[in-house]
Amino acid sequence: MTKQCKACGKAFQPHPKVPNQTYCSSPECQRERRRRWLEEKRQVDADYQGNEPQKIEQWRNEHPDYWKQYRQANPNYADRNRNLQQTRNQRSRNPVIANVYELPEFSPFPSGRYRLIPVIADVIANEYELIVEIIVIS
Ligand SMILES: [Zn+2]
User: Fold this and answer.
1) Structure pTM?
2) 129 and 81, same domain (yes or no)
3) How many angstroms separate the alpha carbon of residue 4 from the centre of ligand 1?
4) Are residues 128 and 94 part of one domain?
């Protein structure tokens, strides 16, 4: 059964798992769908404003020294961060190669969730952090 896209008006085939689909899958129409959803949401729910990127950007522009002042007011926080970053930098310059003879009885890296932070051009790219599940198989 084909439907007519609410945005572009073209006929499309809804995804089998989304029978109520009313917009085709083109990126423009999906953007339009989200835009309309947000608009509606905003009208219905006055509280739904917190996560909008423009709001965050606006707040940042109105409080340009917030983090600077925060660091000045909280020297421990700044120190701790600086130390952590230095340690991380140190580690990325001199990666620790696990020595077989020093390995404890149990692997220091058991299966579990880990924070994966890429190093891009020798800089820890925290904003690209991923939480990954690692399953150790031996
Ligand atoms: Zn469309």
Assistant:
1) 0.35
2) yes
3) 8
4) yes
